[in-house]
Amino acid sequence: METPSKIKLNFASLEAQYVSQCSVQATTQEVFLNFAASLLPGSEPGEYILPVHTRMAMNYHTAKRLTGVLQETIAKYEEENGPLIEVKASSQIPVEQNKRSGFPKIKK
Q1: Taking the complete model, does pTM exceed 0.90, yes or no?
Q2: Per-residue model confidence as pLDDT tens for the chain (108 residues)
Q3: Torsion of CA 72, 58, 62, 48, to 10 degrees
Q4: Which of 8, 61, 105, 108 fits a disulfide with 46 by CB distance 3.0 to 4.6 angstroms?
Q5: What is the rounded distance in angstroms from the CA atom of residue 13 to the CA atom of residue 98?
Q6: Nearest to 95 by CA among 17, 18, 20, 21
């Protein structure tokens, strides 16, 4: 039986950014995660600006592995601390998929 490889994390050039908002965009080949610290009001009523500070791109295999790791992490947290309270849908900005480009579009 083969011994699994060991991976060591190197935090020498670490820069952390706080994230409270994320939008997901996708093409047929890649998934993009756009991270922001907050959602800001725009210049027009009902308009919002997402000031993206970090963008991550990955293929679908990596996105699926990330989804699994996040689900396991959250399940373990909830097992130890109780269930997380869901955010009310009324406090979220509805997102509509833009059919032509494959990128999400924030509804007004």
Answers
A1: no
A2: 677 789 888 888 888 999 999 999 999 999 999 999 998 999 999 999 999 999 999 999 999 999 999 999 999 999 999 999 876 644 555 544 444 444 555 554
A3: 30
A4: 108
A5: 37
A6: 21
Question: How is the chain split into domains, by residue range?
Answer: 21-106
* Residue closest to 48 by CA, chosen among 88, 87, 90, 95: 95
Segment 60-67 long-range contacts (CB within 8 Å, at least 24 positions apart)? 60/29, 60/30, 60/31, 62/31, 63/31
Q: Which of 64, 36, 32, 70 is nearest to 52 (CA)?
A: 36
Torsion, CA 95, CA 41, CA 70, CA 82, rounded to 10 = -110
